[in-house]
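Case study 2.
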Amino acid sequence: MDKYEWERMSPKVREKYLQILRDMPPGKKLRIAIEHNDAAREFMKAGIRARNPGISEEDVRKELIRRTLPSDIVKKVYGWEGYPSLKEDERETGRKYHEYISHTLDR
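Prediction:
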């Protein structure tokens, strides 16, 4: 769920949604998070393939790694050039959103 969907939700529905998440066993939360992560990676791979017809699966894997890991990690672990890291203001926006969601779920 993105911020737009969250803000469009009525307070009553939002509270019900949060209660469902609070009551969910940790293992189920983890499983859902992993499934969402896997789905996001598949969407990213599909986008890479769509923008690069004929690309090999190995090159799709490398491009996915470059897009998802910080450039210094890509360089250290794989020896490739990664993409520049997020700018500080983009990182700060991500931190604020994460803190907001975490705080809301912990109530």
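The two ends are 19 Å apart (CA to CA).
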